[in-house]
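Researcher: Structure for this, please.
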Amino acid sequence: MVHHPEATGATMKDVAEKAGVSTATVSRALMSPEKVSAATRQKVEDAVTAVGYSPHTLARNSKRSESRTILVIVPDICDPFFSEMIRGVESVAAAVGYLVLLGDCAHQNQQERSFLDLMLTRQIDGMVLLGSQVPFDSTNEEQRALLPMVMANEFAPELDLPTVHIDNLTAAFEAVNHLLRLGHSRIACIAGPQDMPLCQYRLQGYIQALRRSGIAVDPHYIVRGDFTFDAGSRAMQYLMALPEPPDALFCHSDIMALGAMSEAKIMGLRIPQDISLVGFDDIELSRYSDPQLTTVSQPRFEIGREAMNLLLEQLQGKIVNSGSRLLDFELKIRGSTAPSLRDENAR
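Model: Predicted structure, token format:
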């Protein structure tokens, strides 16, 4: 008899490919063998032996009704924006005896298979998504049906999930309208990635506010960034080099706004006398900048709490409707915005 060592890297996907079945079928064959045919079960068992896959964790979990563990998928674990949201999730989870695992979607390509295996082997009971990215093929209905999921912060209607977030379009509209009321008319926007739904809504809020005031949207005033300090810095360099630079700036995140603020000071610009800045998120750093940053405050802790509560309801067998749960936002007006000097000089 040939002895196959325990897995040193084989995954359920390897078993599925060897057996010529789906990963979901492998999961059923190993966890609930009565739900598949004898022939399929034999193919899966042979493939397990052939690739050296060790389903010991699966067997252990199948004896229990649940793992008492949930997975939180974070778009970028280095971004301080998500810390309060994660804390909100953990506060609810800890109170009912759940462990929280963090998965970083910034490196999703390398980890996608690991995340999927956690789902298929029932090592997690559910997932909270803090962005629009999911750690599996979202077009695969079989995979989507594996675990209860809730989305927090983002909104992706095509995923048909319970979702907790703010009204990003209205929040952006109010932020830009604040600059307009201060007399600014050359208002630029440092936007986030085009493929992120919340960035699309924030950009629409910016555009609607300008159009409502009769100001034409200048495409040169819209610069894309990736929610980093460097992106804000580079955007500021580009905008201030324009023939007619802006006198105010709306940013899709505080991080990019702070990067822009730093670059403006290097250029010798005074804030808010020469240029007003508005951020988005109200991270802790926004209150310690000089001047303090005017920003849209999101209830990030409450978003996390509400998302985890919705997930718990699903885990308890309750029916939770998909769609949005909107929480309130607040425009925090601080020292980085002031009336336009052009407006003051015209009086």
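Researcher: Any notable elements?
Model: The CA atoms of residues 121 and 158 lie 26 Å apart. Residues 12-62 form a domain with the 434 Repressor (Amino-terminal Domain) fold (CATH 1.10.260.40).
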